Amino acid sequence: MATPGPVIPEVPFEPSKPPVIEGLSPTVYRNPESFKEKFLRKTRENPVVPIGCLATVAALTYGLYSFYRGDNQRSQLMMRTRIAAQGFTVTALLLGLAVTAMKSRP
């Protein structure tokens, strides 16, 4: 029986290559999106969410302005409107996610 030669340990991870995982094919992003491109793409996919965000900011801003002026009734109304706009935004976000998930199914 021959004596085995020295055992050379295999390099566990090569930084220049992605790890090989059975059943997974890694994708390499050649053109990473800029912030503007990603924002525009996401807005086209679900245009209701930015509208809800703008409504929330508008209600908050006007409510704070009314509070500063001392118009408590208007300030309360705007804070309630802000809560409604936030609920609308969250609902739109969840519905958009559900629609996207349904589209991606085969």
From TrEMBL:
Domain of life of the native organism: Eukaryota
Subcellular location, in the record's words? Mitochondrion membrane
Task: Show the InterPro entries listed in the entry.
Answer: Hypoxia_induced_domain, RCF1
Any one annotated GO CC term: mitochondrial membrane
Gene3D superfamilies per the record?
A: 6.10.140.1320
Q: Please give the start and end residues of each transmembrane region.
A: 48-68, 83-102
Biological processes annotated in GO: mitochondrial respirasome assembly
The primary location reported for this protein is mitochondrion
Q: Which residues form the HIG1 domain?
A: 20-106
Which of UniProt's keywords are assigned here?
Answer: Membrane, Transmembrane, Transmembrane helix
Protein name in UniProt: HIG1 hypoxia inducible domain family member 2A
Organism listed in the record: Rhinopithecus roxellana
